[in-house]
Structure formats: C-alpha cells, structure tokens
Amino acid sequence: MAIVAGSAPHPIYLAGRWVDSPHRLLVERAGYPGEAAGATYAATAEQYDAAVDAAVAAFEVTRRMPAYERARILHAVSEGIRQRRDELGALISMEAGKPIRDALTEVDRAAITFRLGAEEAERLTGEVIPLDIAPASRGRVGVVRRFPIGPVAGISPFNFPLNLAAHKVAPAIASGNPIVLKPPSKDPLVMLTVAEIIDAAGAPPGSVSILPMTRELGDRMVADERFALLSFTGSPVVGWRMKERAGKKKVVLELGGNAGAIVDATADVDWAARRCLIGAFAYAGQVCISVQRLYVHEDVHDRFIDRFVQGARDLVVGDPLDPRTDVGPMVDESAVRRTAAWVDEAVQRGGRVLVGGTADGAFFPPTILEDVPRDARVCTEEAFAPVVVLETFRDFHDAVARVNDSRFGLQCGVFTNDLSHAWYGFDELHVGGVIVNDVPTYRVDHMPYGGVKDSGQGREGLRYAIEDMTELRTMVYAQPG
Description:
- Helix 14 links the parallel strand 18 (about 410-415) and strand 19.
- The protein folds into two domains: about 10-255 and about 455-475, Aldehyde Dehydrogenase, Chain A, domain 1 (3-Layer(aba) Sandwich), CATH 3.40.605.10; about 260-455, 3-Layer(aba) Sandwich (Aldehyde Dehydrogenase, Chain A, domain 2).
- Helix 2 (about 65-85) packs across helix 6 (about 190-200), helix 4 (about 100-120) packs parallel to helix 5 (about 165-175) and helix 5 packs across helix 15 (about 460-470).
- By secondary structure, the chain is an alpha/beta fold.
- Strands 14-15-16-13-12-18-19 form a seven-stranded mixed sheet, sandwiched between helices. A six-stranded mixed sheet has the order 9-8-7-10-11-21, with helices on both faces.
- The N and C termini lie far apart (about 65 Å).
- It has helices spanning about 45-60, 65-85, 85-95, 100-120, 165-175, 190-200, 215-225, 235-245, 270-280, 300-315, 335-350, 375-380, 395-405, 420-430, 460-470, and strands at about 10-15, 15-20, 25-30, 35-40, 125-130, 140-150, 150-155, 180, 210, 230-235, 250-255, 260-265, 295, 350-355, 365-370, 385-395, 410, 410-415, 435, 450-455, 455, 470-480.
- It is globular.
- The model is unreliable at about 1-5 (pLDDT under 50).
C-alpha cells in the first residue's frame, strides 16, 4: 500500500482494522509549503475509545503469549521494514525533510530495533533468591519474574518518525503489552506504513493501534486511566506537564537537551572536527542530542576552528531527496523564525557569527557562533537547529562545570586522549550518557538512553524500556516440614 502524493488518504490502523474518519489530515512535504507528501485521517473520539478498549481486551491475550510468538512477530516486522527500505526512506525524507541518506539510516536502525526487540523477548529472565537468612525462613526460596504491565500509551516525535516510534512499539510487543501509538501529525505516514507490516506479521487484533489524533485527544490519552504506562518523546515543557496529569500510571519521558561537547588539548582535532560537523548539523540540528554547546581547549582552538568552519561551509544545503544533500530544510517556518530570532539575539549581545547565521526560506545554514553570553537563549534553551555556540577553556574541570551549568542533562561528548579526563567526565558530568571521543549525538539502539534534570526520566534501549513496561512479581515457596 505505497503512498503517493495526490493518492487517496492512507487509512488509520485501529486495533487490527483499517478505518477512515471524517477528519482528513493533509501531510505537507517538509520545507516545501503547499506540496503534499500524502494524506491520512485524524481519529475521532469514538475511534480513540475503541482502540483503548481493544488494547485492554487484547492484554488478556498478549500477556499470555509465549516468547517464541512475540519474537516471531518482531522478527517479521524487522524483515518487512528491511524489504521496504527505499519506500520508507523516501517517506521520511518527504514528510520530515530528512536528507535521504539519513532517512535510509533511520530505516536501517528501525529494522535493528525490532530485531533487538525479538531477541529481548526471548531472554526475559528473573532470578531465584535464597530466603533462609534467618531460622524462621528455613526451607523457603523466592522466585522473581517480570510480568507485562498493561496497555501502553505511546506518543512519538516528528524528528525520528520511524525509529523513535519503534522504540515504543517494539518493547511493548516484546514484553507482552498492547500499545496505542499517537504518531506526529507532521509525519504520520511512515508509521502507518509500518502498521501494514505489523498487521502482516500477525500481531493479535487490538494489540497495536496507530492513530494520528488531535492534541485534545492526545491530552485525553495522557490522563486515561486505562493505560498502565505513558511513554512520551518530545519537548520538556510538554513532557513535564504530561507527567502532572498522568495520574497513577508509570511515565517514561525522553525529552530535550542542549548537549555539550568538549574538545580537550589531547584530542585528535581532525576527528573531533569531522564528528562535530555531523553532531551539530545532521538533520539541520533537529536532534535532541545535537551538539549545541562546544567547548574547545585554548591549545587546539585555532586548529579546530579552521577545520570546523571550513567543514561547515562545505556542507551541501538543499533538497532532502537529493543524495548529495547534507542539510535539508527545517521542519516548518516557525522553527526557522525562532532560530533566526535566537541567533539575532546572540549577535546583538556581542556574539560573532563565524559562518551561516541567515535563513533562506525553509532552510537555515550551518551556523557557528562565538563570544555569546552564556545566558542567551541559544545557550540556555534547546535550539533544535543547525546552530552551535563555541567557547574556549583552559582547565578541563572548568569545561565540565560549564557543561553541567544547564537545566538539561541528556548526553555529552568528550574528545580526549587523557584517560584521567575521560574518567573525570564520566564521574562528574550530570548527564545520562558520556560519549568519549565522539559526539553526544551518538546512539546505538540497544544502549540505555535517556536524560536527567529537565531532559527526562526513565531509559529507552530495548532491555531498559522493557524494564519499565514490566513489573516484578515474587513467589515465595516454602518447603513444609
């Protein structure tokens, strides 16, 4: 059921059925206002209720599904994604404005994510606890197992419309939980296409629903007591408000950041510059672990800047469907306006533009700033744009303190060949992940991923997501006598 711009709207996936609604949802091509990427529907309130009721009913099936069956479904989804790689990559590029090379990489990662889900389904383990630690407990042993928690509400963001949704759907299936997923309204078509693959894989009816919906219905989803867990990826302001309204359900929040990277005096400067170009400007910086604050040791400052600035100038900005493109458009005009306003504010307060700095329609070029006051918005907030602010440091401990001087704490990159500095960064950086000799933008899909402070709570990565989607239950066995 390939989606072609101008074709009939793609139906939505409600508990194993394909349905439409009175509310047509037009999906524009990102960066090209007025050009359609396709169309689908927004679910009605009645359809939302039907999906949640079906998930509650399906839990009686999914919680009893054997591991081999959950793994079989996930392996089939992984293979289906792999087989439709080009179609899914083109959809991501059209809907999200992601350069086609990066879009295809996202598809590959999603195939891995579902494959990892299958593997984790097969190795969900517990433990045996000896309880005879006192005379009164003689002859007793404890057995601890993980059990599925119940229906999951998933809300995924626009910037990785396939793989970040996969990080909710795959662990839900793996752990025996039904899921209702709200994909982003800007780019819902790729996950509706994946729903075709999930359906063909034989997921039990009601165990998966993928429903574009209004913000009002999304708000209802957050507070809905029929869900046992809410998994949200998105902005910090929205995420923490959701937690306040979520009631008794468990909440996993993967939120934003303003990630720092440190280039130490002992760093491989060429490698650091090449990796920071990718970390700062891939997908026009619209990545929550994009390099935003860059701290460079004074001994290597000039060499690093020469390479970094020239590399930024050499990046190709243009049509995301062109394989030569490095940096595509921003997701919409409001994102461009906000970025321009923050850069202008930084310059007005004394910042210098080393490269870029001026929008071109839907495109914002790779931009490097220096001498920006640390309380400027481009330093303190999440830019979510192809903008990086550079500072020089003399003492490594001071650089670590500057990274920590933020309300965010997602990941940090530390380029150093001084082992003591690597360990110091690991010990002292208040973040969810420290990436040594690479950018904070690095993530592989089985590692624990998540942040501290305003950057969220809980962890993704298949095994770690499954821990949140299950609950421990203990059986105590007493030997009579």
